[in-house]
Amino acid sequence: MPDKPVTLTEFIIEEERHFKQATGSFTLLLTQIENAAKIIASHVKKSGLVDILGSAGKTNTSGEQVQKLDVFANELLVSTLLESGQVYAIMSEELDEPVFSKKNRGHYVVCFDPLDGSSNIDSNVSIGTIFSIYHKNPDLFQPGIKQVAAGYILYGSSVMFVYSCGRGVNGFTLDPSIGSFLLSHPKIKIPEKGDTYSINEAYFHLFDQKLQQYITDLKEKKEYKLRYIGSMVADIHRTLLTGGIFLNPANKKSPEGKLRLLFEVNPLSFIVNQAGGSATTGYLDPLIIKPTQLIHRTPIAIGSRQEVKNYILSLQRSL
Ligand code: AHM
Ligand code: MG
């Protein structure tokens, strides 16, 4: 008999057994996210057909209004989570304010970026959904160390669900023939060192001198290759599997960097930490920062422990 593949649902149920006070509520929540992800994945797959089916804002052949994919993903997650009964409040990169569940139900607060890398949709480049789960708290702006779980769904050449609830990181690949995510990448460990750096180097002229020097040094070592997709979730996924460093640092036009603590930096830093890597703003662990607003931005470098350490050291050098 061949080994029976482990589905994401089975894995989540099994993992919840390790938490003494578990009530099943967390399992239900992750299962709702999994279901929403499958629906988003099927829409992402059809996104190249907009000319045939109707483009965003127009009507399709069935006479229905076609939504932009990121709007669709956001609305689906909002309604799925608020109706799940498990969620007290949600915060989305696409919303200006937190939204609370009616009747104050639910034990969890969920933050999400419904479709990260959305500028890549029209060119059929990988994009993803990122989520982060906290316990309910009167102050919704909790630092990333308080995350109960975090994960992402990558809509790439295959669809992957990667998550951690603080017991390591596991990755599941969607088998389209049966409609289930199957455990394909158990106990993901990021290599201690890597040979890839990932940064939008077009901003080189906007970087401060230390950062310019760091990049110049990487090139001079002649050991590194550059990879930059422009979807953080996809750049982090590659970094997680093959090692290296991903950076979205401050620059003269964006002194806080571009990426948002609640929706991108915290969940992906949590995942990479759980896989044995690390993250830094350059000076601080981002997971200890208390967000001051919904779109709190921070400079960030995430990746292999050794690469992140070298980056921090390079910023401490005097030129
Ligand atoms: P988005 O959430 O609106 O897609 O923006 C975030 C994305 C990240 O995924 C990516 O790393 C970054 O923006 C790319 O920015 P840039 O084009 O300035 O390099
Ligand atoms: Mg994003």
Provide structural commentary.
An 8-stranded mixed beta sheet has the order 2-1-3-4-5-6-7-8, sandwiched between helices. A 5-stranded mixed beta sheet has the order 10-9-11-13-12, with helices on both faces. The longest helix has 21 residues, at 25-45. A hairpin with a 6-residue loop joins strand 1 (87-92) and strand 2. It has helices at residues 8-16, 25-45, 50-53, 69-84, 209-221, 232-242, 261-274, 305-316, and strands at residues 87-92, 99-100, 108-116, 127-135, 149-155, 159-164, 170-175, 180-185, 196-198, 225-226, 245-248, 278-280, 300-303. 43% of the residues are buried. Helix 1 packs antiparallel against helix 2 and helix 2 (25-45) runs antiparallel to helix 4 (69-84). The radius of gyration is 20 Å and the shape is globular. The chain folds into 2 domains: 8-185, Fructose-1,6-Bisphosphatase, Chain A, domain 1, CATH 3.30.540.10; 196-316, D-Maltodextrin-Binding Protein, domain 2 (3-Layer(aba) Sandwich). The termini are far apart. The chain has 319 residues and is α+β, with helices and mostly antiparallel strands. The structure holds 2,5-anhydro-1,6-di-O-phosphono-D-mannitol (AHM) and magnesium ion. 2,5-anhydro-1,6-di-O-phosphono-D-mannitol binds at residues 93, 113, 116-119, 200, 230-232, 248, 258.
